[in-house]
Amino acid sequence: MALRLLTALPVYNEAAHVHGVLEQVRRYSPDILVVNDGSSDSTADVLAQEPGIHVVTHPKNQGYGAALRTAFQFALEHGYDVLVTIDCDGQHQPELIPAMAAAVFPESGEEWDIVSGSRYLQHFDGDSIPPADRRRVNMEITRLLNEHLGLQLTDTFCGFKAYRVPALALLNVTNLGYAMPLQVWVQAVAQGLRITEFPVPLVYLDASRSFGGSLDDTRKRLQHYREVIDNELAAVHFPALEKLECGSGCQ
């Protein structure tokens, strides 16, 4: 039986890019959702001219995490098997969508709940050199998550992912900004979700992208991410990890 695949693009003020990205995504995904997160440019006008796609519009800009939360809800409500998320800035490769989606349900071996793109798992010809501050933050937060959660991630923040849709019902996304993936990692481990990585090329097209306000300061952004992890760790329970730590001495 063929899997029902939905590819979702979170979009904010991407009028210059969204048509070109959608042209590529159409080649590899039968169903497409664009979450227009309160764009103030002509993104809505561009999307109105795009046939055969689903569009959900936030009246006001809520944040990257909010757009992905909407995509999760849409995929669950419409009974898809796999959700692939891909950014609209041209950094991801739509031709990898089928392979990433198929990796959720491999022909042999274990099924996965989250197949996360990693730009550091494998070297590709033409890979970009990441901005030093972005790489440092990614490395530090990836190290922290691996340490706390017993994971072996190499790339915490890649937005190119595939999810087994029923597993999304176990996540409670409340962080609406760029730290949302950190909340998802913690909750995914707490819920016992099966996680693997998928190698994708490293492409940076906009090294000057703003994270919003004080988060453009690398030190403040790193501190914010640490606080999000700490708060989420305090809010959830990890039965599997507790069992490993306690061994036979726990009551």
Task: Tell me what the structure shows.
- With 251 residues, the chain is of the alpha/beta class.
- It has a single domain, classed as Spore Coat Polysaccharide Biosynthesis Protein SpsA, Chain A.
- The chain is 38% helix and 15% strand.
- The protein contains 9 helices and 7 strands.
- The protein has helices at residues 18-26, 43-48, 64-77, 97-104, 132-149, 165-168, 180-190, 218-235, 239-246; strands spanning 5-11, 31-37, 54-58, 82-85, 114-118, 161-164, 195-199.
- Strands 3-2-1-4-6-5-7 form a 7-stranded mixed β-sheet, with helices on both faces.
- The longest helix is centred in the middle third of the chain and has 18 residues, at 132-149.
- The radius of gyration is 18 Å and the shape is globular.
